[in-house]
Amino acid sequence: INKIGTVKLTDASKALIDAARAAYNALTADQKALVTKLAKLEAAEKKYADLVAANDVDEKINKIGTVKLTNASKALIDAARAAYNALTADQKALVTKLATLEAAEKKYADLVAANDVDEKINKIGTVKLTDASKALIDAARAAYNALTADQKAIDAIGVVEYTDASKALIDAARAAYNALTADQKALVTKHAILEAAEQAYKDLKAEATEAIDDIRSSDINIQKVLRNGKVYILVGEKMYDTTGKMVE
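Above: the chain's sequence. Below: its structure in token form.
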């Protein structure tokens, strides 16, 4: 048993484990009771079995190869995923190709999404001045825009205000962006605008909170007030915006 050493997925390692097991099994019951390394042998057997199981999954992942939009390619991906999911936690930790599997799943999903758009575009056919032709074009455009919905959601934010409506637009844009894959995020050209909007809303919230605190604690005539989500300066009975312009 001591000769087993570090368990590896090799014939030599398997031979050492098998030899130790055979020697143990050949003992009488009384002799087995005197063996002090049985737990080590059992751990080695388990580790080797785990390595075999993990390697089987790695081999299935390797078989995926170049991902294509075909039933055969999908079957290879699904077989690898099913094999991985069937593993124990210890076995999963020994899989070395999980990132490759996840990349293959992502690529196939991207191919499916892109193909759906291509199919809608192909359905357009000869363009005519009819409602039916317009509907086909609109459907294709909508499907394509759905792949870049984050861009439109960011555009929809507009001027940032400290209002529930503005916050909802910002949150919708963030959710659309977060739902993208890493590759899709890399194609987003307006992420900086989204981040700026989030920071602007955060700043407005802080300013509004300060204004409310001022109103609660101040007994002077010059105060900050919050109205319709915007901060104003109240001087006596006259109100001014933050640029100094008097408002009704």
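The chain has a mean pLDDT of 86.
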